[in-house]
Specification:
Elements: H1 3-6, H2 19-25, E1 30-34, E2 39-41, E3 49-55, E4 58-63, E5 69-75, E6 80-81, H3 83-88, E7 95-98, E8 102-108, H4 109-118, H5 121-146, H6 149-164, E9 165-168, E10 171-174, H7 180-187, H8 191-199
Amino acid sequence: MNTMKKNIKQIELFKNLTDDELKEMDPYLITAPFKKKETIFSEGEPPEWFYIVLSGKVKITKLSHEGKEIILEIISPHDIFGGVAVIRGFAYPGNAVAMEDSEVLKISRKNLMRLVDRFPNLMYFIALQLGDRMKSSYDSLKNIALERVEARIAALLLKLANKIGVETDEGTLIDMRLTKQDVADMVGTTVETSIRTFSK
C-alpha cells in the first residue's frame, strides 16, 4: 500500500478499519490527479465512480435556467462526493470540478457495492455524510431562492467557519482561498453585487 493510501485511515469513512482490512481494500482504491478547473464528472453522466478528496478542493455545481453556474458545495480533503448517484444508480445530478490542483481517491460503483457488502459500517458512514451533504445543498438552494444577498453571504461565511474554520486570537480563520467569482457563484449573485455587499 503506497504512502497516499496509508493516509486513508485519517478519513472518517475508513478510520475504524484495521490494517489488514485496509490492505484487503487496497486493490479497489485508485488515486487520480486533476488539474485546476478540470472536470471530474458532468451532470447527466452515468455514475461510474465514488470519490473522496485527498488533497485540494472540488466544487459541485449546477447551471441555473439562465445558464449561470451555482456552486452547491465545496468538497474539502477527506470528504466524499458522487455518492448518492453511485449508490442509487442514477446519473450524476451536478458537475464536479477541481478548484485547484487536486488528488482524489476513487472507487468504481461495482467495487463500492462489494466493499459495503464486506464492510457494512462503510454504508453507515457514507449515509451520514450524504445526509449532511443533502441538507447543506438544500439550505444553499433555499437561501438563493428566498434570502437577500447580505443574508446569503452571511450564511455562507458561517457555513465555511463551521466546516473548516480555525480558531485564532483574532477570531475564526476560514483557511480557504476563494475568488470573488467563487463567492458570487456560491450565493447566486454577480461579482459586482457581492463586492458591493462586502464593502458595506
